[in-house]
Automatic annotation (TrEMBL):
<protein>
    <recommendedName>
        <fullName>hydroxymethylpyrimidine kinase</fullName>
        <ecNumber>2.7.1.49</ecNumber>
    </recommendedName>
</protein>
<feature type="domain" description="Pyridoxamine kinase/Phosphomethylpyrimidine kinase">
    <location>
        <begin position="21"/>
        <end position="276"/>
    </location>
</feature>
<keyword id="KW-0547">Nucleotide-binding</keyword>
<dbReference type="InterPro" id="IPR029056">
    <property type="entry name" value="Ribokinase-like"/>
</dbReference>
<dbReference type="InterPro" id="IPR004399">
    <property type="entry name" value="HMP/HMP-P_kinase_dom"/>
</dbReference>
<dbReference type="GO" id="GO:0005829">
    <property type="term" value="C:cytosol"/>
</dbReference>
<dbReference type="GO" id="GO:0005524">
    <property type="term" value="F:ATP binding"/>
</dbReference>
<comment type="pathway">
    <text>Cofactor biosynthesis; thiamine diphosphate biosynthesis.</text>
</comment>
<dbReference type="GO" id="GO:0009229">
    <property type="term" value="P:thiamine diphosphate biosynthetic process"/>
</dbReference>
<keyword id="KW-0808">Transferase</keyword>
<dbReference type="GO" id="GO:0008902">
    <property type="term" value="F:hydroxymethylpyrimidine kinase activity"/>
</dbReference>
<dbReference type="GO" id="GO:0008972">
    <property type="term" value="F:phosphomethylpyrimidine kinase activity"/>
</dbReference>
<keyword id="KW-0418">Kinase</keyword>
<dbReference type="GO" id="GO:0009228">
    <property type="term" value="P:thiamine biosynthetic process"/>
</dbReference>
<keyword id="KW-0067">ATP-binding</keyword>
<dbReference type="Pfam" id="PF08543">
    <property type="entry name" value="Phos_pyr_kin"/>
</dbReference>
<dbReference type="InterPro" id="IPR013749">
    <property type="entry name" value="PM/HMP-P_kinase-1"/>
</dbReference>
Amino acid sequence: MKSSLPTSVQIPKVLTIAGSDSGGGAGLQADLKVMTALGAYGMTVVTAITAQNTLGVTRIQDVALDIVEAQIDAIFDDIGADIVKIGMLASPEIVRTVATSLLRHGVEKIVLDPVLRATSGASLGGDDTAAAMIAELFPLASLITPNLDEASLLLGRDISSAGDFKQAAQDLLDMGPQAVLIKGGHLDSTHTQITDLLMWRSVEDDLEVIQVKEFRHDRIKTENTHGTGCTLASAIATYLADGHDLMHAVGKAISFVEAGLVAGQFLSIGEGPGPLWPMHDFYPTSLPVENQSS
Ligand SMILES: Nc1ncnc2c1ncn2[C@@H]1O[C@H](COP(=O)(O)OP(=O)(O)OP(=O)(O)O)[C@@H](O)[C@H]1O
Ligand SMILES: Cc1ncc(CO)c(N)n1
């Protein structure tokens, strides 16, 4: 039972529906760290448990459908969420369960990161999961954030150059989401710049118009890029829940990832590509520990 103490401080409540990364760099662990770093109250619905580290994924255990549903109900029957971020869903059945539950609870703000493969190459969902996402979740999504591999899988054709981004975003937008962000992080790593392309629908004078914004930024030279996609989508969701419009939320989230990558260069976590560092604002890694403010 609640006490009668005043509860006037409002912080954004952000729910991630995602897989667990035992290594802590991606998945719901990354999501929670980002939400916390950005001042939101983070919550989790676990869809799958991955045995994972910086070298790769060794095992995946899907969570039973009724347990996925019960977690979503537990949150919306009590706490609620200002926005939902979706990551790894692992099977078409989990996609359907999540979509049905979110519809039942009338959830309207959804950032969908269509996670289908880990950077290490491990499959985190197959073609049938992609098809279920398109059918069940795209129409509910405020924003989808595919990387190049995911955009190629979802569209059934190769998206391999920045010149393909606009048409790919348009074709993905035609599949039902309100907005699409194509992430260019995996495009040729010899390029010194990265382009992420945002396309979204808006209404002007009662007419729907399609808007486009390219975010071009320097590629940070680092191996430690584990979790960039999860971090970006969680940061966008948190900034949206905090009241920013889509274009600014995406811009701020890209800057947050960049700062995390710069700070993550100085960390040595695991033998493979390590994670970025989402706590960069609080614990800057480039300073010797004794010089950091306490
Ligand atoms: N080396 C880099 N320097 C600067 N920004 C980067 C770098 N690598 C990725 N990003 C940014 O990180 C964000 C996520 O992009 P990316 O293409 O890596 O997504 P992803 O493949 O879904 O991530 P993940 O590898 O976690 O699955 C994008 O905004 C992208 O521009
Ligand atoms: C659990 C999980 N979700 C998402 C990704 C994508 O980075 C990953 N590697 N692991």
